[in-house]
Fold:
Amino acid sequence: MSARDFGWDPRVPSGPLDTAWQRCRDGLPLIAPNNRQRLRILVVGSGLAGASAAATLAEQGYRVQVVTYHDSPRRAHSVAAQGGINAAKNYANDGDSVARLFRDTLKGGDFRAREAGCHRLAEISSAIIDQCVAQGVPFAREYGGTLANRSFGGTQVSRTFYARGQTGQQLLYGAYQALMRQVAAGRVELFCRRDMLELVTVEGVARGVVCRHQLTGALEVFTAHAVLLASGGYSNVYYLSTNAVKSNASAIVGAYRKGALLANPCFTQIHPTCIPAGEAWQSKLTLMSESLRNDGRIWLPARPGDGRSAAAIPEAERDYFLERQYPSFGNMVPRDLASRRARERCLAGHGVGPGGRSVYLDLADAIARDGKTAIAERYGNLLEMYERITGEDPTATPMRIYPAPHYTMGGLWVDYHLMSSVPGLFVLGEANFSEHGANRLGASALMQGLADGYFIAPATVTAWLAAQPHPEVGPQHSACRSALAEGQARVDRLMAVPGCRPVDDFHRALGLLMIDACGISRQADRLQAALGELARLQQEFRSELKLPDHGSPINAELEKALRLEDFLGLAEVMLRDALAREESCGAHFREEHQTSDGEALRDDDRFAHIAAWEYVAEAAPRRHCEPLRFTVLPPSTRNYR
Amino acid sequence: MASRLSLTLKIWRQVAADAPGAFETHQLEGLSPDLSLLEVLDLLNGELVARGERPVGFEHDCREGICGSCGFLVNGQAHGPQLATTVCQLYVRQFRPGETLVLEPFRAQAFPLLQDLSVDRSALDRIIEAGGYCSVNTGSAVEANTILIGRDQAASAFDTATCIGCGACVASCRNASASLFVAAKLAHLGQLPQGQPERRERARALQERMEAEGFGGCSNHLECEATCPKQISADWISWMHREGRR
Structure:
């Protein structure tokens, strides 16, 4: 299908970019305060995007319900974000501006995002910091009491605000506390320990969700006048990732099955600095902040298969491959390059550790230069965390790291108003595909989640509600009853499989398949073969799964199986998306499309578009293209040599 | 790499709050020292499911010590023997070969048991709901640098703000007091200019809610500080008492 035929309106404002959001907002309809309390909004997810949206909409007077799979909203995985949050405050007086943050975001995404969305994000960034400070978020400060900034992820300006290595935690607690304030005010109702199974649509409009209560096992229907999904990313499709073990794609896959387009699902970010996989039962890959690359030098033995310990390998026989390949950026090259090069060297037999699947990150030179105390102070809890997990002292022997799935740029397609292709269904934060294009910049995820939740959705959801009639949909509505029945049928089907393999067995197999075919490096034949393997795995899942059934309504294995079923469905669209995108851009590297020295070859003539996938029952999904236009910044090629 | 070892797990099994509970013993052989204790439970659960038995219920999510989901007693200690560690960050290598580990749920009146090692800690959310916030609506914030906060003051506020709400302080207190949890939130906001307008009311409201939820008063044993995975100082409890209920 050609790009001209895209059947959905992205509602991107025309005219000058720098006033687009203001003009859009000025034209949005409003709702009088006394009418807002009659309108109910349902938010799925309580992370940065969900909690901030729910709190803000409740402050405006709407009645909000929040469902989350956690026992408390404070546990959402935003809590684990380490590095920081970008804002174009230019406090460092180093030449930063909205225009520059906009350009960095669009370029960082390798020109696969909408320029209007990137610009809006840069515009809103400053107000986010103001809001968080007002809530009492304890950002790092200078001695004079002003906010401290640091440079992050190789940017030339210092625009990252941070709270030691726990920025996500502190921002989340700010949003969580704002949310609990609205719970106290009676405007937010919290429904914890619920897994979303189905989206409820009435005449094509999103009007609610069906959830399974983890403690009672009961399926419940929640109805509302607008539904907001803020359910996070899907890196756990790879089984091992930096995500929390229960982070899942069920909300977005449920919406996809009801007609919401899934955009750029193959754009997944593999973070270069994580503690590597080892044991079969290892359940997660822990991120080591990439700030370690400021001081750590990455190297491998120059000779393949060199079995000596790191200490026994003399300097001349070490290959500092990033410094060698990228003399000007060295160890600070972007995440995707660092990941790809590490994998390449390991495949060539230079890798160290179990299975040769890790590289050294060596702090020795930095310790010799600045002293052990200074380095320990700079990375404090990171070094402790590493030692706790691996049992090795990173100041005595080089750390071993390897890339791990971290963030998913892809997600549900949304228009400029953050509304999906299902009217009334809004998607916020990592769950949508929006502003990061093919690669997200460091410290931009928190910015986007909070921009969506505090500022964008409250304006655009209001506009949607103002423009719609609001017929009541109660739990007895036929759409609710049929969604409930679908959810129940799914549970019954899974419980009835007479197999003998636990869920995690299948999830591990899916992870291996996906990381191999659709991880750091992709290639047509392998993707094609993976589609066949995936179909076999799905078949096995349907016939060999074993779930415990002991009469207790609490059934963690069933929860896992429901999530895995959705990951299996998602994996197919990811593989097809990676196969169809015959170019290399950002985190998506297709081996067929590279320069003679192994750099990514983007194809703007054929692929300057968003790929949006439409679910088709019992058949392959349909690919649609939303063309991208760049009016301010002409697409350029990254060069880090 | 250290060699594999065996462990004996004595695990509290109780299918529901109103059902009888008892310890169940499982012998696990050939464990890698690089497994976390929760991964050992995953492994055990895989075997239980394959044998048609009910898997062990326990709370977990991020498995990197920051979400606060996990938490149970290991040999009587909340989050186990290692300092400044949540139970998800406890690794097999920290135990002696052949050691017996007794795993029990957090026991406190305000934390009703759900199943096996899982308890309901929603009382902590209700304490925050009582006033653990600055009342500021989105959009009404002033420019961030108009609020000046000294570097040390900000760092001290941060130290108290790192509480992950795991409930270990409650489980380790013989009065099952949530004093450290409450003090940490009061100190986080009470040390910052943004928290001043509601400081008195917050101190009163949070402590009242703590009592109403069935938590006890501070036992002065300071077990909470010893067990806190974020090493929040019990000095803040004294600070809270000085705040009084003004």
Summary: Chain A has a mean pLDDT of 95. The domain at 478-602 of chain A is CATH 1.20.58.100 (Methane Monooxygenase Hydroxylase; Chain G, domain 1). The longest strand of chain A covers residues 399-408. Chain A is about 35% helix and 15% strand.
